Amino acid sequence: MVMCREVDGGCEWKGRIKQYEDHCNVCPFMMVPCPALGCMTSVPRNQLSQHQESVCVGRKLACSFCNGKLRAANRDQHLRDTCPKVQLVCPNQCGAVDLLRDQVRFNSVL
């Protein structure tokens, strides 16, 4: 009889060595890599869904300003550099405040 290597994580499985590989493929306590692009995290199989929905850097989300789709890891760069609905002070020093990024180009033509 062998025990699961994730016994410290909470797995109570015991079985024959020839069944061990099959168990490892389904064990809820086995550490598995997150499949999301750019995520290098491994989590217990039974926590993978929660990880992907709430903290994974590769999870997809909608920008709270423009509603554009992006990955969580790119959120800060999107807000800093490209989001068309982020409010800015006019870079042309015309005194306009609270311009949306997509209005700044138009404002610079005036």
- In spatial order, strands of the major sheet run 1-2
Low-confidence stretches: none
Shape: rod-shaped
Q: SS-based structural class?
A: alpha+beta
Distance between the termini: 80 Å
Give a quick account of the main beta sheet: strands, pairing sense, barrel closure.
2 strands, antiparallel
In DSSP terms, counting alpha (H) and pi (I) runs of 4 or more, how many helices? 4
Taken in chain order, the helices and strands follow as EEHEEHEEHEEH
What is the share of helical residues?
25-40%
Count every beta strand, where a strand is a DSSP E run of 2 or more residues: 8
Question: What portion of residues belong to β-strands?
Answer: 15-25%
**Average pLDDT value?**
90
Radius of gyration: 24 Å
Q: What would you say this structure looks like, in words?
A:
The protein has 110 residues and is of the alpha+beta class. It is built from 4 helices and 8 strands; from the N terminus they run E-E-H-E-E-H-E-E-H-E-E-H. A hairpin with a 6-residue loop joins strand 5 (60-62) and strand 6 (69-71). The longest helix has 9 residues, at 101-109. The radius of gyration is 24 Å and the shape is rod-shaped.
Question: Which characteristics define this entry?
Answer:
single chain, 110 residues, alpha+beta, two-stranded antiparallel ribbon, 4 helices, 8 strands, 18% strand
